[in-house]
Specification:
The protein contains 22 helices and 23 strands. It is α/β, with parallel strands linked by helices and 679 residues long. The protein has four domains: 163 residues, Rossmann fold, CATH 3.40.50; 117 residues, Translation factors (Elongation Factor Tu (Ef-tu), domain 3, Beta Barrel), CATH 2.40.30.10; 128 residues, NADPH-cytochrome p450 Reductase, Chain A, domain 3, CATH 1.20.990.10; 149 residues, 3-Layer(aba) Sandwich (Rossmann fold), CATH 3.40.50. The radius of gyration is 30 Å and the shape is globular. The N terminus is likely disordered. One of its GO terms (molecular function) is NADPH-hemoprotein reductase activity. It holds the Pfam family FAD_binding_1. One of its GO terms (biological process) is response to hormone.
Length: 679
C-alpha cells in the first residue's frame, strides 16, 4: 500500500500541475478506498469463517491430554509411588519396565510402567509430592546413539530443560549393544542429565549389553537395585514371591466376528479399510510384485522383493528403513495348541486387572488364540527368566519345576543353566514345552507372559526418484540347526520368502511402514561418496547409486561414486552383478571393488581392498571431502572397516593413532561417516 501511495506524496511535483495532481489524488483515493474496502471485506469474512469453527471440539482436544498426561495425578489417584518409564523400540525395555513395576509389591511399594510419549515429563519436578517416590528409566539406544521413537520427546525436553529436579530420586538401566559405536548412549545421557538437573541417583547406572546376555545384565542389576531402594526408603521385602496375574481371561462364546481382531496392529478392520497416514500402529498392506532368488548357488537363500506402495501416500528417501510385520509359522502355532490341548479358534480377551492402566490388553482384543500366537506374540525367541519363573507353578513334576525356578533365580548356578539350556541351545517356548512333558500352563497365562512379536527393519534397496511407487528389499533367509538338533527359521525372512507375487489374498501381502533414517546422500550431488557394504549390506547403496544415476540424467554434476562390496564366491552369491556392471558402464559407478572372501586360500574382505586402495581413499576423503557410508554386520565388518580408516588417516595424514581416531570421530559428528549396521 505504501508503495502505491508514495507518488502522490512526492514533494518534487510542480505547482503548475495541480489539476493533474488533483486528478491523480482522486483516482488514487478511489483505488485505495476500493482496495481497503475489498481487503477489509475479505478479512472480515475470512475471520468470521475461522471464528465460526465450533470451539467446543477445539477445547476438548486441548483438554483431553491434560487429564492423561499427568503421571503424578495418576500415581496419586492409584496409590503408586514408583514409576518406571521405558524408551523401547523392540519391546524389551518395556518388558523390563513392567517387570520392575511388578516387583515393587514385594517391598510394600506400588509401581507403574509408563510410556514417556503419553505423559508430560516436566512433571518429574513434582514427584517429591508423593511419599517414598522414585522414577526408574529403562532406556534403549536405537541406531547410532539415538533415542527410541517413543523417547524422542523426552530426549528433546531433557536437552532444553532447565527444570529444578532436586526433589527427584531416580535410577537408570540402559539397553544397548557393545558392537555399536555409541554403546548405551541414551541410558548414559539420561543418567548424567538428570543428575545435572539436581536429581538424586539412588542406584548406579545399569548397562545391559545385547551382544552378550542382556537378560543376565538386567537380573544382576535388578538384584542389587532393590536392596538399595529398601535401604533408601527404610523398607523391607515382604517375602511375597507369588505369581500375580496382570490380566484376566474373558472367553467370548457369542461374539460378533466383525468385532474380533484378525492380525491388525491398531484400528479394528484397518486391513480391510486402509486409511493413511501409515505408521507402526497403522501399517500399509503392500502387494509383493516381485520375489526372486539372487544367488546362483550355495546353501543360503538370498532374495530381492518389491513391495507396491501405489496409492498409499507413503514417501521414502534413499537410506530409509522399511519395517514389516511378519507372521509366525502356522505349524509352530498348531503344535503349541496341540501340546496344551487348546482349541486355538476360541475367541477371548485378556483384560488388565488394573483399570487405571493405559494398556487395557497385552495385544489387540478380542481375538483368537490362533491370531495371538500367529501375529501378536513372539514364540520363536528363547523366553526370558521371568516367563520361566511364572510358568514353573504349572509343572507337575517337581524336578522340572525346580529346574525352571533355578533358571529364573539370580544364583550363579541358575544363570549358568539358563544360559546353556535356554539361550545357547536356542530353545523357544515350543521346545521348552516339548522337553518338559509335565509343564502344561493354561494358554491364556502363556499368552500374557510372551513378549510381543516385533516389526523387522530392512534397509530400503531402491530410490524413490526412480521407483516412487515401489520399495525394494534385499534379505537373506535365516535358517540354522540348534544344539538340540532342531531346525530354527527366521520368522520374517521365512515368511517373506513364502510370499507369492500377484496372488490374491494374504499370500502376497506385507503389512509395512517406513522409518526415516539419518543415512543420507550428501546434499550436493558433486560430493564424492565411498560406500562399503558386503552381503545384504549392499541394499541402501543400490538406492544411492540409482539416485546418483537419476541426478546425472537430470544434467547434475555427480561426484565420484565408489563401492566396496564383498561376498563369499564370485559365481555363487555376487548380488546384483548385472545392475552394478551396468551402472559402471554408464559411468555412474566410478569404482567397483569386490572382495570374494572364499575364492582363494586366504580370505579377502572389504577392509583389505580399502587398504589396497588406501592412497585413493585418503585423497577422496581429505581433498574431495567424500562422505563414507558403512552398511552391514556391526560385530566384525564395521569395526574392522573403522580400524582400517584409522590406519589410512594415521599414515597419510601424518597423525598418531589417537589423532586418527579423533579425525574419524569428527567425520562422524559432521555426518561424513555414517553407519547402518546390525548385529
Amino acid at each position: 500500500l505504501s508503495a502505491m501511495g508514495e507518488p502522490s506524496m512526492d514533494p518534487t511535483l510542480a505547482a503548475d500541475s495541480t489539476a493533474q495532481q488533483d486528478s491523480l489524488f482522486s483516482m488514487t483515493d478511489v483505488f485505495l478506498i476500493s482496495l481497503i474496502t475489498g481487503l477489509f471485506t475479505y478479512w472480515f469474512f475470512f475471520r468470521k469463517k475461522k471464528e465460526e469453527v465450533p470451539e467446543l471440539p477445539k477445547m476438548q482436544t486441548v483438554a483431553a491430554p491434560v487429564r492423561d498426561s499427568s503421571f503424578i495425578e495418576k500415581m496419586k489417584k492409584t496409590g503408586r509411588n514408583i514409576v518406571v518409564f521405558y524408551g523401547s523400540q523392540t519391546g524389551t525395555a518395556e518388558e523390563f519396565a513392567n517387570r520392575l513395576a511388578k516387583d515393587a509389591h514385594r517391598y510394600g511399594l506400588r509401581g507403574m510402567a509408563a510410556d514417556p510419549e503419553e505423559y508430560d515429563l516436566s512433571d518429574l519436578s513434582r514427584l517429591s509430592e508423593i511419599d517414598k517416590s522414585l522414577a526408574v528409566f529403562c532406556m534403549a539406544t536405537y541406531g547410532e546413539g539415538d533415542p527410541t521413537d517413543n523417547a524422542q520427546d523426552f530426549y528433546d525436553w531433557l536437552q532444553e530443560a532447565d527444570a529444578d529436579l532436586s526433589g527427584l530420586r531416580f535410577a537408570v538401566f540402559g539397553l544397548g549393544n557393545k558392537t555399536y559405536e555409541h554403546f548405551n548412549a541414551m541410558g548414559k545421557y539420561v543418567d548424567k542429565r538428570l543428575e545435572e538437573l539436581g536429581a538424586q541417583r539412588i542406584f548406579e547406572l545399569g548397562l545391559g549389553d545385547d551382544d552378550g546376555n542382556l537378560e543376565e545384565d538386567f537380573i544382576t542389576w535388578r538384584e542389587q537395585f532393590w536392596p538399595a531402594v529398601c535401604e533408601h526408603f527404610g523398607v523391607e521385602a515382604t517375602g511375597e514371591e507369588s505369581s500375580i496375574r496382570q490380566y484376566e481371561l474373558v472367553v467370548h462364546t457369542d461374539v460378533n466376528m466383525n468385532k474380533v481382531y484378525t492380525g491388525e496392529m491398531g484400528r479394528l478392520k484397518s486391513y480391510e479399510n486402509q486409511k493413511p497416514p501409515f505408521d507402526a500402529k497403522n501399517p500399509f498392506l503392500a502387494q509383493v510384485t516381485e520375489n526372486r532368488k539372487l544367488n546362483e548357488g550355495g546353501e543360503r537363500h538370498l532374495m530381492h522383493l518389491e513391495l507396491d506402495i501405489s496409492n498409499s501416500k507413503i514417501r521414502y528417501e534413499s537410506g530409509d528403513h522399511v519395517a514389516v510385520y511378519p507372521a509366525n509359522d502356522s505349524s509352530l502355532v498348531n503344535q503349541i495348541g496341540e501340546i496344551l490341548g487348546t482349541d486355538l479358534d476360541t475367541v477371548m480377551s485378556l483384560n488388565n486387572l488394573d483399570e487405571e492402566s493405559n494398556k487395557k490388553h497385552p495385544f489387540p482384543c478380542p481375538t483368537s488364540y490362533r491370531t495371538a500366537l500367529t501375529y501378536y506374540l513372539d514364540i520363536t525367541n528363547p523366553p526370558r527368566t521371568n516367563v520361566l519363573y511364572e510358568l514353573a507353578q504349572y509343572a507337575s513334576d517337581s524336578g522340572e519345576q525346580e529346574r525352571l525356578r533355578k533358571m529364573a533365580s539370580s544364583a550363579a548356578e541358575g544363570k549358568e543353566l539358563y544360559l546353556s539350556w535356554v539361550v545357547e541351545a536356542r530353545r523357544n517356548i515350543l521346545a521348552i514345552l516339548q522337553d518338559m512333558p509335565s509343564l502344561r500352563p493354561p494358554i491364556d497365562h502363556l499368552c500374557e507372559l510372551l513378549p510381543r512379536l516385533q516389526a523387522r527393519y530392512y534397509s530400503i534397496a531402491s530410490s524413490s526418484k526412480v521407483h516412487p511407487n515401489s520399495i525394494h528389499i534385499c534379505a537373506v533367509t535365516v535358517e540354522y540347526e540348534t544344539k538340540t538338533g532342531r531346525l530354527n527359521k527366521g520368522v520374517a525372512t521365512s515368511w517373506l520368502r513364502s510370499k507369492v507375487p500377484g496372488q490374491q489374498g494374504s499370500s502376497s501381502l506385507v503389512p509395512m511402514y517406513v522409518r526415516k533414517s539419518q543415512f543420507r546422500l550428501p546434499f550436493k550431488p558433486s560430493t564424492p561418496v565411498i560406500m562399503i557394504g558386503p552381503g545384504t549390506g549392499i541394499a541402501p547403496f543400490l538406492g544411492f547409486i540409482q539416485e546418483r544415476a537419476w541426478l546425472k540424467q537430470q544434467g547434475k554434476e555427480v561426484g565420484e561414486t565408489v563401492l566396496y562390496y564383498g561376498c563369499r564366491h564370485e559365481h555363487e552369491d555376487y548380488l546384483y552383478r548385472e545392475e552394478l556392471a551396468r551402472f559402471q558402464k554408464e559411468g555412474v559407478l566410478t569404482q567397483l571393488n569386490v572382495a570374494f572372501s572364499r575364492d582363494q586360500a586366504e580370505k579377502v574382505y572389504v577392509q583389505h581392498l580399502l587398504k589396497k586402495n588406501k592412497e585413493n581413499v585418503w585423497k577422496l576423503v581429505n581433498e574431495g571431502m567424500a562422505h563414507i557410508y558403512v552398511c552391514g554386520d556391526a560385530r566384525n565388518m564395521a569395526r574392522d572397516v573403522q580400524n582400517t580408516f584409522y590406519e589410512i588417516v594415521s599414515e597419510f595424514g601424518n597423525m598418531s593413532q589417537p589423532q586418527a581416531v579423533d579425525y574419524v570421530k569428527k567425520l562422524m559428528t559432521k555426518g561424513r561417516y555414517s553407519l547402518d549396521v546390525w548385529s
